[in-house]
Amino acid sequence: MARYSRISEKEREELLNEFCDALAVLKGPKEIKEFLVDLLTSQERVMLAKRIKVAKLLLEKKNYREIEKELKVSHATIAKIAFWLLEGGKGFKKMAQRVKKSKN
Description:
Elements: H1 2-5, H2 9-24, H3 28-39, H4 42-59, H5 64-71, H6 75-87, H7 90-103
């Protein structure tokens, strides 16, 4: 956390924008997957994928115990993501809606 706090809010925003720009130029799931495999460790990919899955399951009204059992995540992790969804969660909700539509 100490290293993260050494950069300004403006710098954090610029870095996030650069990351988003990098994702935005990729064409389709295959290219995005290749990029994420190059960028992230296996553990980081699993961690992020689990967060997305937890958000989707919460939006589907699954209970904490079901999610804990299915994804092998802690109650605290689920609660943190539930809080993000409650406090806004605009990005998670938009992603979940679009994924659901694309599968139908």
